[in-house]
C-alpha cells in the first residue's frame, strides 16, 4: 500500500496553514524570499515576539534573586515555563503526581550546552573504570564531542572508559539496532542517540535502541530536530534525557532545555553556581510551545513531510542530483517511512557552496556546507532544505524549477 498523496494532503491542510504562515512577521514582510533553513534556526511567530516584548516591558528582573514583585513574577515565570516543557513533552509522571515526581527540567543555552551538561555533570557519576558507553559518530557533532570530552576528563582522573561507535546502516544513516544488540555487554552503562537526523531527515527509530540495550541502560536523546517539528512523548520514548534547543522550536536563540527522567542512575543536578538564566529566552520558549500546541504539532509534521515528499520526488527524477539518505524514501508514493522536514542533496557538477549562492540569487535561503556532521570532511558539503509550517507548495515548485534549469 502506497503512502498518502502529498499534494492531496497539502490541499486538505491549506486553509489551516495560510493564517499560520501570516503569523510570521519576517515571512510576511518578505514574500519573494523562501526561508528554507529551519533546521539551523526557526523563524518566530508574532505570539512569541509579543511575549518577549510584554515580559521585558512589564516584569523584567532576575529570577530567584529578589523579593520585589518583578523578581517574584520572573521567578514564577521560569518555574511555570519548566512545567510547560514537561507538559509539552507529555511527561505523564509529572501529571500523575501533580507536577512532582522524579523528572526535572533544566534550562540551558541550547542542545549543545545541554548535552555537554549531561556529559560533564552527570555521566562521570555513573561510570567506573572499565565501563563502556555507546555514542553516534555520524550524527551532529554536538552529540559526539561532549561524550569524548567526558572520556578524556575521566582519563585525567585515572578512570578509563571505552567509547564505542553506535552502529548505523551505510547510505541511510539509520541506526543498526541488531548490530547494537551484539555490541552491548555487561559494562555498557550509557547510550547517546538522535531523534531525527539533521542531514538525512529520518526518524532514527529510538524505540529500537531501548529494545537493543535492555531496560536498565540510560539513554540520552538529542531532540533538536524533533521538538516543535513533530509530535513526541517522553512517556512513549523510554529515554532518560531529552535535550533540545528553543531557537529551533520557534523561540529565541540562547535557550534550550534538558528534561531528565530521574529513574536510572544518579539524580541529575547541573554542577556549579547557577548564574542568571536567559529569562527573555525562557519566556519566548513558553510562548512558542503554546503557539505550537495551538497550531497542532501533528498537522505541522504532516504539512512539512508532504512538502519534503514533493521535493524529494522531484529531485529523484533529476539525474544531476543525489539525495542523501534512504533511497527508498524518495518517491511521493513510497511505502517506507517518509522523511520529515529535512531534505539534503548534492549536484554532481556544482559544488554545494556555489549551488547555495545560485539558489539565493533565485530567492531561496538554504544551508550549504557539511552541516556540522561528525566524521565528515568540511569540503564534503551538500545543500540542506529544512522546512516549517510557513513554507508552501509554491515554494517547492519554484525550487524544483530552479534546480531543473541547473541540470
Mean pLDDT: 92
**CATH homologous superfamily title of the largest domain:** Type I PLP-dependent aspartate aminotransferase-like (Major domain)
Quote the beta fraction.
5-15%
Domain count, please report it. Answer: 2
Number of helices: 13
Q: What series of H and E elements makes up the topology?
A: HHEHHHEHEHEHEHEEEHHEEHEEEH
Task: Assign a percent range to the helix content.
Answer: 25-40%
Major sheet: 7 strands, mixed
Distance between the termini: 33 Å
User: In CATH terms, what is the fold-level topology of the largest domain?
Assistant: Aspartate Aminotransferase, domain 2
Give the second-level CATH assignment, the architecture of the largest domain: 3-Layer(aba) Sandwich
CATH class of the largest domain: Alpha Beta
**In angstroms, what is the radius of gyration?**
21 Å
Secondary structure category: alpha/beta
- Uncertain regions: pLDDT < 50 for 5+ in a row? none
Q: Based on Cα principal axes, name the global outline.
A: globular
**Total number of β-strand segments?**
13
Strand order of the largest sheet: 2-8-7-6-5-3-4
